Amino acid sequence: RLSCIRNNVWLACCGVVSAGLAVLSSFGLMLFCGVPFVVTVANAPFLILGVGVDDMFIMIASWEQSSKEKQKSDVKSRLAETYAEAALSVTITTLTDVLAFFIGTWTAFPSVRSFCLYTGTAFVFCYIYTMTFFGAIIVLNHKREQGNRHWLTCMPVEVDKDQAEKSCLYNACCIGNCSRQSSEPESEHPMNIFFKNYYGPFFTNKWIKLLVVLLYGAYLGGSIYGCTCIREGIDLRNLASDDSYVIPYYNDDDKYFSAYGPRVMVVITESVEYWNETVRLGIENCTQNLE
Predict the structure, then answer these.
(1) In this structure, what DSSP letter does residue 232 have?
(2) Element (H or E) spanning 254, and its range?
(3) Rounded CA gap, 240 and 242, in Å?
(4) Residues of 118-135 as b/e, b for ≥16 C-beta within 10 angstroms?
(5) Are 84 and 140 in contact (CB under 8 A)?
(6) Mind listing the pLDDT tens digit of every residue in the chain (291 residues)?
(7) d(CA 172, CA 169)
(8) Through-space distance between the first and last CA atoms of the chain, rounded to whole angstroms
(9) Which end of the chain, N or C, is more open, meaning fewer C-beta atoms within 10 Å of its C-beta?
(10) Residue 116 backbone zone (phi > 0: left; psi -120 to 50: alpha; other: beta)
(11) Rounded to 5 degrees, what angle do the CA atoms 25, 26, 28 make?
């Protein structure tokens, strides 16, 4: 926003901090419980950050919508309206994510089990911090705006009498905005106007709805056909970087040694008298028979 008062930079930063707190809490709890930490768990914070930022935007949008519809001055009423609108969406997304990862703990692979435990627990903490910590931050940010305070320094911003003589950039950064009064209500966001006045009416047209149904049918048919073409297995070359020595190794292995089949190994699990010539001959005859 082009306003040093209604700019929500710190609010966005606190949303990221909320996701970081969820990662720290979940990792600390899992490590305290003795759950092994594997390398794949290092990818979990990026998943939590994505969901946490998404929940943050839902909360902020519901807060601003409540102010436009109800025009409530009571902070408790506005926050209650915000939670009534946003909490259901945030709860459903969190429940589906948590169920998906906790179901993954049934796998036989220990590394996947640890990854699902860490990530599923992090989603639970992300929900808790969004409903508690971030809600409190929204209220504090609202009080800052009500006090006409700067977003960076939190110092009171006063209307300059010589504002008309200043540039628009100076007024936006140091006074409030480009208009005469720094505390005037903010107009509706252009993105909301676009979806409400253009995007929504466009897709409610009956011909557009028919086209969307046909496109989705084609997409669904292509997806079903793609599922029938999936082959089991994994190409180890896809797990390495493009400049890794592993890729030419597997290329040469397929080119020169693929005709020989898999490597067969024989393991003797008992204690054997290798110094006995008869035993050595028996082992040699065994290997020859296998060949």
Answers:
(1) S
(2) helix 246-257
(3) 7
(4) bbbbbbbbbbebbbeebb
(5) no
(6) 667 787 888 899 999 999 999 999 999 999 999 999 988 899 999 999 999 999 999 999 899 888 665 555 688 888 999 999 999 999 999 999 999 999 999 988 888 899 999 999 999 999 999 999 999 999 999 988 888 887 777 788 776 555 555 666 665 566 655 444 444 455 677 888 898 899 999 989 999 999 999 999 999 999 999 999 988 777 777 777 778 888 899 899 889 988 887 777 878 888 999 999 999 999 999 889 988
(7) 5
(8) 76
(9) C
(10) alpha
(11) 65
| AA identity, residue 114 | S
- Name beta bridge partners: 156: 149
- For the record, the structure tokens of 189 come out as 């966001």
Rounded to two decimals, the pTM is: 0.67
Q: Confirm if 150 and 39 have CB atoms less than 8 A apart.
A: no
Both tokens of 54, joined, read: 């998404």
Tokens of 164: 């008309």
What residue ranges do the domains of the chain occupy? 8-179, 196-229, 260-290
